[in-house]
Amino acid sequence: MNDSYLNFVNSPFGARLARSVGLPKPEVLRRYRADQPEFGGLVALGAGREPHLLDALASLVASIGVTSVAHESAGLWVPLANRHGLMTGRFEAADSGSQGKLAALLFDASGIEDSTQLEPLHGFFHDTLRSLGKCGRIIVLGRPPESCATPRQWTAQRALEGFTRSLGKEARRGITANLVYVERGAENRVEATLRFFLSPRSAYVSGQVVRVAAGAGDETAPTFDWQQPLAGRRAVVTGAARGIGASIASVLAAEGAHVIGIDIPTARDALDATMRQLNGTALAFDIAAPEAPAQIAAALDEQGVDIVVHNAGITKDKTIAKMTEAAWQSVIDINLSAQERIDDALLAAGILRDGGRIIGVSSISGIAGNLGQTNYAASKAGVIGRVQSMAPHLRARGITINAVAPGFIETQMTAKIPMTIREAGRRMNSMSQGGQPVDVAQTIAWLAHPGSAGVSGQIVRVCGQSLIGA
Ligand SMILES: NC(=O)c1ccc[n+]([C@@H]2O[C@H](COP(=O)([O-])OP(=O)(O)OC[C@H]3O[C@@H](n4cnc5c(N)ncnc54)[C@H](O)[C@@H]3O)[C@@H](O)[C@H]2O)c1
């Protein structure tokens, strides 16, 4: 759906008016386009004491071909960073060039072991934040607090969360700020995640905390075709006829996957049209029908599948006193129970291959709750429960399971919301605007990436850092 306020305040007249009367001015977000360079510009690097992730940063900077400069407050680690081939010089505000702006700020906080050692965070971001350009990127790297050896270390690492989330709220101008906790031994597994958070693909993902876990056989860094990471893989997407599902199908196909789109028989024409465009396969099934899991398993059996995206979902909003049993039941069934039945069928028969990916679509309603959505929020919180409970069991097979939790995304589902509530939903986030289906789709593509093997059991909000449920 069109956000006319965003279009208006970004017109010359609208921008002037917004400035003079102090209206919020949401930025037009820079999103990934295949015909434009994904990475570029100058990246400033900072670090606390004894940073452990310099190899990971060196490999990232080399692989995406950006120029990096160390901030002077990182004096402590300049010799170290030079050894890792990271430096091209020291950052001065003037280095940010005539456009005056840096593309990203990366801070390695992994060596911070005590709250008294947090100051370099202040020093680095105090000096650099104003030089970060529109739609710039902030990534803070740390160690998972729960993996820390001492309470002091745990405390200091946990502090990074409040710090990064606050930066996201302060930065504005379409800038995102995210925190990546890298487990010891997972250094070779972090590149796909860092690329995602640096890229315009993560335009509407901010204030998130992601953990990258280690696994067996991680001694050498795997290599990927970063343009076609899903080549040779097969991906099932439910609810693929329109909205977010159609966008997920199209992004996964663009990354090389063969997509099998599922939708209800009444959406068959739209599903066929979407799949034709992507050279995919259309399956017209109601996922909640009792026979659906066996039918889906039979359709996929011969070639198997690598990625399952549970996107199909419905709303039937009413306060609980007015909600019929049928409205309760259908939402729970389609949004939650059907996913459980389908995964059981695919996992039991080994149709979802080892090393596979399961990705659920939850919602910030499932995190925060929402008036009139007891059924929907229960189903979406249940999706989070599935992710958390199943991740440890799937680990031995190398299968990851994660969920995205979209905030306000411009689709036919949100177009049905009454105007005043819709406008509030759009603005109550750090980006002051709704997201696009492609923002959810790109986040799912990162979770589906073969390089995301260390990311499992997690819920990533795609909500522009919504104030709701934060
Ligand atoms: N739009 C948002 O702001 C938003 C926010 C949070 C979460 N979500 C979630 O994202 C997902 C997609 O939402 P959307 O906005 O694109 O919705 P949408 O209504 O535009 O699309 C949903 C698709 O799922 C299909 N579907 C519904 N029931 C089905 C069934 N029984 N079997 C097979 N297919 C079925 C529909 O036909 C439709 O094509 C949903 O799970 C929704 O809950 C959306």
Describe this structure in words.
With 470 residues, the chain is of the alpha/beta class. The strands form two sheets. It has a seven-stranded parallel β-sheet, with helices on both faces. It has a seven-stranded parallel β-sheet with strand order 10-9-8-11-12-13-14, sandwiched between helices. Helices cover 38% and strands 18% of the residues. α11 (325-348) runs parallel beside α13 (374-394). The protein has three domains: 1-29, no CATH class; 31-212, Rossmann fold (3-Layer(aba) Sandwich), CATH 3.40.50.720; 234-462, Rossmann fold. The protein contains 16 helices and 14 strands. Residues 238-239, 241-245, 262-264, 267, 286-288, 311-314, 334, 361, 363, 406, 408-409, 411-414 line the site of nicotinamide-adenine-dinucleotide (NAD). The site of nicotinamide-adenine-dinucleotide has 28 residues, from α8, β9 and α14.
Give me some keywords for this one.
14 strands; 7-stranded parallel β-sheet; alpha/beta; 470 residues; 18% strand; binds nicotinamide-adenine-dinucleotide; Rossmann fold
What's the total number of strands? 14
At CATH's second level, what is the architecture of the largest domain? 3-Layer(aba) Sandwich
Global geometry: globular
Mean pLDDT: 91
Ligand catalogue: nicotinamide-adenine-dinucleotide
**Amino- and carboxy-terminal Cα gap:** 25 Å
CATH superfamily of the largest domain: NAD(P)-binding Rossmann-like Domain
Q: What is the spatial order of strands in the main beta sheet?
A: 3-2-1-4-5-6-7
Classify the fold: give the CATH topology of the largest domain. Answer: Rossmann fold
Tally of structural domains? 3
Low-confidence stretches: none
Largest sheet: 7 strands, parallel
Radius of gyration of CA atoms, rounded to a whole number: 22 Å
